[in-house]
Amino acid sequence: SHYHSGRAAYGGRRVPLPTMSRFTGMRHVHLNEGIITRTEKLVRAGLCEEPSWLKAFKVHPPPPPPLKARKGVPKIVFPTDKLFGIREARQRQMGVRQEPFYAHGEMQSATLMFAQRQWDLMAKHNMSEYEAYESVEKEMVSLKAKALTQLEGLATNLKVNGTAKASFMSAPKAADQMAKWQVRLEAQPWAEWELGQQVMLDHWICTVALEWGWEQERYLRDEEFEYALGVLRHAIFPDIAPPLDEAAAAAAAEVSAMEEMTSSMEAALEVEVDPALEEQVNEWYSEFGSWQTKVYQTPDFSTWRDSEKDALDQWILTKCLPKQAA
User: Fold this and answer.
1) What was the pLDDT predicted at 312?
2) How far apart are CA 299 and CA 293, in angstroms?
3) What does DSSP say about strands 101-103 and 106-108: parallel, antiparallel, or unpaired?
4) Half-sphere exposure of 119 (CA within 13 A, CB side)
5) pTM of this prediction?
6) What is the mean pLDDT of residues 231-250?
7) Percentage with pLDDT > 90 across the chain
8) If you count Cβ atoms within 10 Å of the first and of the last residue's Cβ in the chain, which end, N or C, has fewer?
9) HSE (side-chain half, CA atoms, 13 Å) at 220
């Protein structure tokens, strides 16, 4: 019973059947084989009958099993990662935080842009890491200066020639958008707009009037760019007040502080006055004026009548000195 009954298929030899322990212990040898190949071997060895699905599987084989995933997520390293870290560290040492920000529909990073340009110079122009860094640094300084010049130049041009002759107004879409902004300004002053609405208007000026991308628009964080943009904003929309320069802003702040301090002092000194006391004060000033006129007309006190002298002394004792002294 332990031998295969179909020994005629093996030349009359008695072939022992493998025990379950021997069979399962050898399964690791065939793990890489497909199910069709393993089944055919078992059928040829007489270990099982041919299953009904084998012919169908040969015509339409099943998809291969998925590859085994490696343990852990592989770390992807880009050529710019090292350059990015160096630039970020140097910016941090100088107190500059180039944080990523959302602009033009996606997240932008000035530090990543710097690293990418540095890598392009190293790969395409065979520059060293230091040479490429210095080159991109000079390029960034030049780009910032050029953006400020363009911003100030457009504001000056609009002051001289007017908005109607501006090049960006030749596009019908830009003209329609500006008309809508103007209607909004007429309905509500710009100073009363919400911050988000003010930012949207400045973004429109940057993208339409200046044709800037995010690389230039990020400079608006600097005070000089913020002031220049305010001048351009006033040149395009005269209803918006122009920004104050540093001296005017300081003077306005000082005046505002003085007005606030005066208002607080007046509020602190404001007390309720007794009407009877107020009448006594008015009476005293009236009597004081009469005696002052008498002294002016008759400066020599020795020529006064005794009754006048007594009356003056009595007025001083009763009206000018504390009651306890009288």
Assistant:
1) 86
2) 10
3) antiparallel
4) 16
5) 0.50
6) 78
7) 7
8) N
9) 21
Which residue has 């050898």 as its token pair?
26
What is the separation of C-alpha 128 from the centre of its chain, rounded to a whole number of angstroms?
Answer: 34
Separation between Cα atoms, residue 48 and residue 54, nearest integer Å: 12
What DSSP string runs through 262-294? Answer: HHHHHHHH--PPPHHHHHHHHHHHHHHHHHHHH
Averaged pLDDT for residues 87-110? 73
DSSP alpha helices (H): ranges in the chain?
A: 20-25, 35-44, 54-59, 80-93, 110-124, 129-161, 172-187, 195-204, 214-217, 223-236, 246-269, 275-297, 306-315
How many degrees, rounded to 5, is the angle at CA 190 between CA 184 and CA 196?
Answer: 90
Average pLDDT of 171-194? Answer: 89
Number of CB atoms found within 10 A of residue 25's CB: 11
DSSP bridge partners of 107: 102
How many Cβ atoms are within 10 Å of 204's Cβ, its own excluded? Answer: 16
* Integer Cα distance of 180 and 177 in angstroms: 5
